[in-house]
Amino acid sequence: MRFDVLTLFPEMVRAPLSASIIGRAQAAGQVTLGVHDIREHGIGRHRTVDDTPYGGGSGMVMRCDVVADALAAVTTAHGPGKVVLFEPSGRPFDQRMAERFATEAHLVFVCGHYEGVDARFAASLGDRVEVVSIGDFVLTGGEYAALVVIDAVSRLLPGVLGNADSARVESFAPGRGLEFPQYTRPRDWEGWGVPEVLLSGNHAKIEAWRDAQSEERTARVRPDLARR
Ligand code: J9Q
Questions:
Q1: How does pLDDT run across 120-155, given as a tens digit for each residue?
Q2: Does the beta carbon of 135 lie inside 6 Å of ligand 1?
Q3: What is this structure's pTM?
Q4: Domain covering 2-154 in this structure, CATH number
Q5: Gap between the Cα atoms of 6 and 25, Å rounded
Q6: Would the CB of 117 count as within 6 Å of ligand 1?
């Protein structure tokens, strides 16, 4: 799968994705990442990428012509792809969206900064763009959102997770609550033991205990998930 990221801060995106499992997926050719500096398409000697909002107000708005030129350069070089624009006003990202994105061959992420991108950019793309938010909080820009989505999508691709990383049944699968608590050695740590049932070797009892723990945790921490 190919990911292209359009950003004003390429170094924020490249380095984190070269580490760990996604780094290994790139080295193995399962994931190809292109990172592109929007400023290369900026206007004039100062490579201007933003301007003050029509109608007034605080902050700066990214110019639609600049962002559209940056996108055109990527699609000319690498073919069209589904465009994902990160904005606080987007549709909320979740595991179902990750699964849908994982069926695409090519995703192009556009990371807005300042007070976002001129609305005509998304409007001009129609069905080719999805405006996405990763949660109800304010970021300085879309770069961390792109990292979150690339991680969540990449680990769903065939072969990206090794056995040790395990694609086991997980939280956020439809109808599933939160994970049960996990323990490993040492068996006693500064007076903290491990629940006796996990040492019992009785797998039916262990499964029942884990199910009860998941249910209790989901009801307490995520009543919104418990209800569905
Ligand atoms: C671009 N706050 O916030 C939550 N999901 C995405 C965002 C975001 C932001 C600012 C700029 C994306």
A1: 999 999 999 999 999 999 999 999 999 999 999 999
A2: yes
A3: 0.95
A4: 3.40.1280.10
A5: 21
A6: no
Predicted confidence (pLDDT) per residue in 64-101, tens digit: 999 999 999 999 999 999 999 999 999 999 999 999 99
Q: Which of 152, 117, 146 is nearest to 132 (CA)?
A: 146
Q: Whose CA is nearest to atom 1 of ligand 1?
A: 142
Q: Out of 58-67, 164-173, 196-205, which region has the weakest mean confidence (pLDDT)?
A: 164-173
Write down the CATH number for the domain with range 175-227. 1.10.1270.20
- SS (HEC) of 44-91: CCCCECEECCCCCCCCCEECHHHHHHHHHHHHHHHCCCEEEEEEEEEE
R_g over Cα of the chain:
22
Nearest protein Cα to ligand 1, atom 9:
139
Average pLDDT for the chain: 95
Residue nearest to atom 7 of ligand 1 (CA): 88
> Which are the contacts of 65, defined by CB distance < 8 A and separation ≥ 6?
43
Whether 87 lines ligand 1, by a CB cut-off of 6 Å, is yes
pLDDT of residue 227: 76
Q: Does 168 have pLDDT greater than 60?
A: no
Intervals of CATH 1.10.1270.20 along the chain: 175-227
Is pLDDT above 90 for 165? Answer: no
CA 9 / ligand 1 centre spacing (Å): 15
Which numbered atom of ligand 1 lies nearest the CA of 140?
10
Q: Considering the chain, tell me which residue range(s) the CATH 3.40.1280.10 domain(s) occupy.
A: 2-154
Separation of CA 119 and ligand 1 centre (Å): 15
213 ligand 1 Cβ < 6 A: no
Distance CA 49, CA 63 (A): 6
Q: 34 in ligand 1 pocket by Cβ < 6 Å?
A: no
